[in-house]
Amino acid sequence: MEKKFGLPKTMKDVVTHYCPGCGHGVIHRIVAEVIDELNIREITIGIAPVGCAVLAYDYLNIDMAEAPHGRTPAVATGIKRVQPNKIVFTYQGDGDLAAIGTGEIVHTAARGENITTIFVNNAVYGMTGGQMAPTTLIKQKTQTTPFGRDPKSAGFPLRVPEMLKSIEGAVYLARETVISPKNIIRLKKYIKKAFVLQMEKAGFSLVEVLSPCPTNLRLSSIKSYDWVRENMLLYYPLGEIKDDS
Predict the structure, then answer these.
(1) Fewest CB within 10 A of the end CB: N or C in the chain?
(2) Alpha helices for 55-180 (secondary structure H)
(3) 3-class DSSP assignment, residue 187
(4) C-alpha–C-alpha distance, residues 178 and 183, integer Å
(5) Do 186 and 176 meet the contact criterion of CB atoms below 8 Å apart?
(6) What is the pTM assigned to this prediction?
(7) Per-residue pLDDT tens over the stretch 87-100
(8) Which of 90, 114, 129 is nearest to 215 (CA)?
(9) Interacting residues of 5 by C-beta distance below 8 A, sequence separation 6+
């Protein structure tokens, strides 16, 4: 029987470390498919930070570098400036990008660095045990907010694309999720556009992905997807936030 479906060349054929229901594996596949379709695998370099996102180098069959927590855009900037003909992207979680790395992502966008950022938002610190993240929703319970996030003491969740929208160097900002096939198809379109804009030397682009974390939500895989739909989508609207291409 002829095989009609298989792994992208940019994805390694290995067993995943991720928890059942985690969205990282789906996002990896989308990134891998985009790289294959654009025929850029031999010139692409990914940078992954501390956190669950760091495991990307186990699954993507491209050159990868690891950065200290939050410094991923800075490392990507250095690599891109030394190798301007390479396609450089960062793969970051919310604890990394929106907390310790907030300054790096803001100034990378302000400089209009010609890189692409894939930003995975699961509303919690995943690898370190489920603490409150900058993207944790109001009233959401975590290890460090057992009674729910209180904006009076912990502030409000960050909407990163909206925060970067006013920066001229940011040319493309979008947000999608992995909770349904329809969303996944649209997410792939956004990620592909972000890579194409880098190939066209347009400037900085970022695609945020709303993803479930069943383990730290204390939910089954299916219920964690429902939680994203019923809670995260209300605060984090989907779509192209900015398109100056």
Answers:
(1) N
(2) 72-82, 94-95, 102-110, 151-154, 160-164
(3) helix
(4) 6
(5) yes
(6) 0.95
(7) 999 999 998 999 99
(8) 129
(9) none
pLDDT tens digit sequence for 199-244: 999 999 999 999 999 998 899 999 999 999 999 999 999 999 999 9
Asked if 117 contacts 97 with a C-beta cutoff of 8 angstroms, the reply is yes
**Would you state the structure tokens that stand for residue 7, as one six-digit string?**
């792994």
Domains of the chain (ranges, CATH numbers): 24-243 (3.40.50.970)
Average pLDDT over residues 109-121: 97
Residue type, 27: I
Phi then psi for 90, rounded to 5 degrees?
Answer: -105, 150
- Paired sense of beta strands 63-66 and 44-48, if any: parallel
Paired with 89 in beta bridges are 46, 116
Locus of tokens 């880098």: 198
Q: DSSP code of 42?
A: G
- Residue 15 tokens read as 């067993």
What SS3 class is residue 83? coil
Q: Are 24 and 59 in contact (CB under 8 A)?
A: no
- Name the helix (H) or strand (E) containing 44: strand 44-48
**Strand, coil or helix: 29:** helix
